[in-house]
């Protein structure tokens, strides 16, 4: 049997996240308040991995990076480099369509204060591993932040020490797949200047180049 690509709607693997989800269902009943599935076709050559759903972003809309600032920068950049068509409008029915790209998170449920703990990240590893295994054409991955980077490296069974996270770094995961690192496209990172839109675009320009050369 093929492993599931997303946890069950009422997954209880992580007691703290399950309790937070239960509380959100009471406080925010119109929100999705469940594990968030990936967005984009499994036939894609690119898989983008973020940290976790935002409380008022993907936890609300049920689509990764949809409804908050991080999505504004990510989807505009994907469109610029031909990885999406349509107009992003912070809602899942905006008509945006990923092109040769799939977007997911290392942790599928919203964590308190956007900070999952190690056990919660580990509990979601099987779903990231299943995503990777289900993408036969995968050639490139982008990790948005160190937690996503570490989750990707572990999903490949590789050693973190051999592949340190650094914005703009490229790592060979296999003879076919390359990992590109980026700081997370959060409002905090852009407001503090840790990540600028041009620096973010350079990561995807490099990924576009790698995929075009492999075509």
Give a concise summary.
By secondary structure, this protein is of the alpha/beta class.
SSE layout:
Blueprint: H1 15-27, E1 46-50, H2 58-61, H3 69-80, E2 84-85, E3 97-98, E4 101-105, H4 118-123, H5 125-133, E5 140-144, H6 146-155, E6 170-172, E7 178-182, H7 187-191, H8 197-214
Parallel strand pairs: 1-4, 1-5, 5-7
Antiparallel strand pairs: 2-3, 6-7
Number of helices: 8
Classified in CATH, the superfamily is Uracil-DNA glycosylase-like domain
- Which structural class should the secondary elements be placed in? alpha/beta
Largest sheet: 5 strands, mixed
Low-confidence regions: none
**What is the helix fraction of residues, given as a range?**
25-40%
Number of domains: 1
Global morphology: globular
Mean pLDDT: 96
Number of strands: 7
CATH class: Alpha Beta
Q: Round the Cα radius of gyration to an integer and report it.
A: 16 Å
Tell me about this structure.
α5 packs across α6. This protein has a five-stranded mixed sheet with strand order 4-1-5-7-6. A two-stranded antiparallel sheet has the order 2-3. The protein has a single domain, classed as Uracil-DNA Glycosylase, subunit E, CATH 3.40.470. It has eight helices and seven strands. The longest helix has 18 residues. β6 and β7 form a beta hairpin. The two termini are 32 Å apart. By secondary structure, it is an alpha/beta fold.
């Amino acid at each position: 049997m093929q492993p599931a690509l997303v946890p069950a709607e009422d997954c209880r693997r992580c007691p703290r996240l399950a309790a937070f989800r239960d509380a959100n269902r009471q406080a925010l009943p119109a929100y999705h308040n469940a594990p968030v599935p990936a967005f984009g076709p499994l036939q894609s050559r690119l898989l983008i991995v973020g940290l976790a759903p935002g409380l008022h972003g993907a936890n609300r809309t049920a689509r990764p990076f949809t409804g908050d600032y991080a999505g504004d920068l990510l989807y505009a950049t994907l469109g610029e480099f031909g990885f999406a068509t349509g107009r992003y409008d912070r809602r899942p029915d905006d008509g945006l369509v990923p092109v040769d790209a799939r977007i997911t998170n290392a942790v599928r449920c919203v964590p308190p204060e956007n900070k999952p703990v190690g056990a919660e990240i580990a509990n979601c590893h099987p779903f990231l591993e299943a995503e990777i295994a289900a993408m036969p054409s995968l050639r490139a991955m982008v990790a948005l932040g160190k937690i996503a980077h570490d989750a990707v490296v572990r999903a490949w069974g590789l050693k973190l020490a051999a592949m340190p996270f650094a914005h703009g770094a490229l790592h060979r995961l296999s003879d076919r797949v390359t990992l590109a690192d980026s700081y997370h496209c959060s409002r905090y990172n852009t407001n503090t200047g840790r990540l600028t839109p041009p620096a973010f675009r350079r990561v995807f320009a490099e990924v576009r180049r790698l995929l075009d050369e492999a075509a």
